[in-house]
């Protein structure tokens, strides 16, 4: 049974989400603030987080970034902020998807299912261990782990899927539209440039110099390709 942590200071919102999620056989945990959420994450195995951006003790983006410092758990943000800059800030802190308030709980449920499905798809795109550029980058597909220059790298589920997809086809040019469909899902209806933010985050984690990337190469006016030579 998948466990979903709902972080929201409004009891009525938590109650509605719990009702819909439990009806679909998900186990639910609740937190009214960031401190309580971090305690759950310390004590429980969480499969997905639903996170409100407005919490009484810290901003949702701040909590998201803290969670990302130690966990790749998928995060679905709830927000009343519709501006693209707010969404990009959330993606930059590590969110996997957004739902705007007020929301239809059926949409939240659909996005939860889609995120969990994507997190489980393409788990074995590569061989168990694939080495690039003489060990500079190593992808352990069986363990869902990545090391860069000998150091373990913590990637979000979307960052990991993006890296594995590109690495499976070195030298192939992927359009932004295709990457959005493959990484964020066919039902994603947000800004296509969101994929650029995921690439930016990924580069900061795996590139020696993100401004002169060796692995994730920009194809100007089109998209991206993988430039690592498989050794």
TrEMBL record:
GO biological process: regulation of DNA-templated transcription
Gene3D superfamilies: 3.40.50.2300, 6.10.250.690, Winged helix-like DNA-binding domain superfamily/Winged helix DNA-binding domain
Record-annotated DNA-binding residue ranges: 129-228
Coiled coil (UniProt feature): none
Stored InterPro entries: CheY-like_superfamily (IPR011006), OmpR/PhoB-type_DNA-bd (IPR001867), Sig_transdc_resp-reg_C-effctor (IPR016032), Sig_transdc_resp-reg_receiver (IPR001789), WalR-like (IPR039420), WH-like_DNA-bd_sf (IPR036388)
Compartments where located: Cytoplasm
GO molecular function: phosphorelay response regulator activity; transcription cis-regulatory region binding
PANTHER family associated with the record: REGULATOR OF RPOS, TWO-COMPONENT RESPONSE REGULATOR ORR33
Protein name, entry field: DNA-binding response regulator
Species: Paenibacillus ihbetae
Higher taxonomy: Bacteria, Bacillati, Bacillota, Bacilli, Bacillales
């Amino acid at each position: 049974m998948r466990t979903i942590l709902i972080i929201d200071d409004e009891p009525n919102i938590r109650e509605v989400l719990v009702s819909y999620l439990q009806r679909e056989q998900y186990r639910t945990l609740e937190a009214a603030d960031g401190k309580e959420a971090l305690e759950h994450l310390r004590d429980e195995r969480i499969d997905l987080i639903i996170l409100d951006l407005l919490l009484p003790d810290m901003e949702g983006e701040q909590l998201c970034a803290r969670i990302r410092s130690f966990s790749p758990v998928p995060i679905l943000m709830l927000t009343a902020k519709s501006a693209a800059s707010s969404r990009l800030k959330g993606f930059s802190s590590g969110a996997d998807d957004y739902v705007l308030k007020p929301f239809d709980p059926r949409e939240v449920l659909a996005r939860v299912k889609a995120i969990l499905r994507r997190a489980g798809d393409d788990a074995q795109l590569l061989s168990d261990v694939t080495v690039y550029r003489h060990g500079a980058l190593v992808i352990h597909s069986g363990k869902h782990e990545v090391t860069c220059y000998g150091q373990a790298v913590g990637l979000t589920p979307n960052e990991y899927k993006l890296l594995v997809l590109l690495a499976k086809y070195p030298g192939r040019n992927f359009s932004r539209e295709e990457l959005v469909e493959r990484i964020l899902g066919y039902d994603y209806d947000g800004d296509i440039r969101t994929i650029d933010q995921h690439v930016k985050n990924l580069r900061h984690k795996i590139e020696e110099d993100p401004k002169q990337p060796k692995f994730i190469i920009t194809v100007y006016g089109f998209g991206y390709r993988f430039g690592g030579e498989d050794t």
